[in-house]
Amino acid sequence: xxxxxxxxxxxxxxxxxxxxxxxxxxxxxxxxxxxxxxxxxxxxxxxxxxxxxxxxxxxxxxxxxxxxxxxxxxxxxxxxxxxxxxxxxxxxxxxxxxxxxxxxxxxxxxxxxxxxxxxxxxxxxxxxxxxxxxxxxxxxxxxxxxxxxxxxxxxxxxxxxxxxxxxxxxxxxxxxxxxxxxxxxxxxxxxxxxxxxxxxxxxxxxxxxxxxxxxxxxxxxxxxxxxxxxxxxxxxxxxxxxxxxxxxxxxxxxxxxxxxxxxxxxxxxxxxxxxxxxxxxxxxxxxxxxxxxxxxxxxxxxxxxxxxxxxxxxxxxxxxxxxxxxxxxxxxxxxxxxxxxxxxxxxxxxxxxxxxxxxxxxxxxxxxxxxxxxxxxxxxxxxxxxxxxxxxxxxxxxxxxxxxxxxxxxxxxxxxxxxxxxxxxxxxxxxxxxxxxxxxxxxxxxxxxxxxxxxxxxxxxxxxxxxxxxxxxxxxxxxxxxxxxxxxxxxxxxxxxxxxxxxxxxxxx
Length: 509
Known about the structure:
single chain; alpha/beta; five-stranded parallel β-sheet
């Protein structure tokens, strides 16, 4: 899987006009080049900024927007009005633009040169004027965008640009995202299903069913030597009982079989160009032919760490959203994972939710080196000894998100959470996290339920609500944010107002 942003770039386009003469045009261009060079040299931006010149007319503005649409490397445009740029000249370009837009409200110089400022300086440095003009036309045209206001050299300004860049990268990644489903939804579960056609129209990704029998064709082609090598890697990377290395035991065979399943899954995902997958523990292949002898939990854990989206029990929306979270999380230190609300722990102000799954929690969030273990798993069509990575998550703050299909729209639900240390689970050997949803257990869980949130979510220590807000804005989907300031009364009002907005918006369209 791709693990960098090197294939992407963001274009920087400066707005101006020719009213102020040739010297002004030269100065605008020089300042813009210096600013782009400074942004790229700051070390704060994950994606390269490319200066695409100054737009001084309607034709120039339209041309650069069309060029951005047709350039696969370009994942977004930053606009900045150095001088007063009459916004009617941007109309045709904005009508054409299909890439995410960030409007940077800044200025080349940090402070007003009080003693030397003259009319020439005023004419040249009119961002306070020009950015409001440009902002008006974007609002008039209902253009979705992010506005960042602040001096371009300030770390906070660069940080906000960086957040938007990561959302742009995730959006670009989603536009050719293929999710493979091995099996269908399970046991009439409603919340993990949804409209796949609308998901492709709105968010870009395509969801395909793949029979497990086709996966087994790849499974049958896996070479024993490759499995042996991967098992060796397991023993090198993870803590484990030395007895597990005894090739004559059932436990070793389960680890070996898990490695074979991982190789087969990776092979079919690569062959199909898929970025994520779902499993169904009621469908592991036919017993009279090639099949998995256990739920491929270890494989799913490791593939998530590589960046493959994963959703349990056919949950394709969570698989896609995890991939999106992983893309935004690249290069950040603390990791992300697919998680499930498992069970509750009532403890007054520290009441919390244990997050886990049968097996599939990503090791990127582990507090310590994961431990490779084999234990009996009594669920699914094939109840058996099953290999898995066991660990608890890091303590700290984080953010979890899910997408639900409400019929007339998708809703992204985001909740700040506080991860706390959990007690040992000697009889439940799974990977887990324990968190308190903000602002507290009672309000956080009630708000999540009222918003229609799923029991699956995609968690990150590094991503904040601002990342998800930028992503929702780019995608044009609703976002509900549950945080330290949330009250149930205000949340209900927000949900009701949102319902009216989307009903009217659908009617008008």
